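## tool: complex_structure
## caller: assistant
## args:
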Amino acid sequence: QSVLTQPPSVSGAPGQRVTISCTGSSSNIGSIYDVHWYQQLPGTAPKLLIYGNSNRPSGVPDRFSGSKSGTSASLAITGLQAEDEADYYCQSYDISLSVVFGGGTKLTVL
Amino acid sequence: QITLKQSGPTLVKPTQTLTLTCTFSGFSLSTRGVGVGWVRQPPGKALEWLALIYWDDDKRHSPSLKTRLTITKDTSKNQVVLTMTNMDPVDTATYYCAHHVYLRGYPNYFQYWGQGTLVTVSS
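## result:
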């Protein structure tokens, strides 16, 4: 049972917009701690996609965006492409002195 | 260019101790704000944080695994070593090391990841 809750799966057609939610609590996302997102393509290591709630590392397309509000965060992907099919994980920090991850969301491009 | 690579056994027996080494390049673990962490992923399951070590030798461990984990660094060799005692089949997973950023007074994000090493626990 992950500390951060994500939907197990989402799907969308090419060109569409999808969002992935990440729900925490007042001890992590709802506190001062930032949310970060990782993309894990099949058979590969995770890759940093969004850091500090809404910042994109160099090289990440602006089709990917992140936001945080209250005890939740969201990852939005616009102009969905086949290459976006992957698992997505959110991550934050908890006052229990723990780095915490979400359970992951599998994105299927229809 | 920052790279990290994990090395260690791919098969360990139950009750044995696992020792994994992360060898990295492109950054220094003596730079303020920099850390190296370990994250694991059982087959088909989610990521799980294990431990972190920072430039100032500050160490953080997953509360649920704290008694079994030890993390150390050798700055001159650009290496971080993780040991996990009393291995069990449920510890079968891909183990990743990653460059970590410590920012604004708390552990932040994993910026670069190694390719991971699958460790199987079986007799």
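## assistant note: The beta strands of chain A are 9-12, 18-23, 36-40, 47-50, 64-69, 72-77, 86-94, 98-101, 105-109. The radius of gyration of chain A is 13 Å. Handing back to user.
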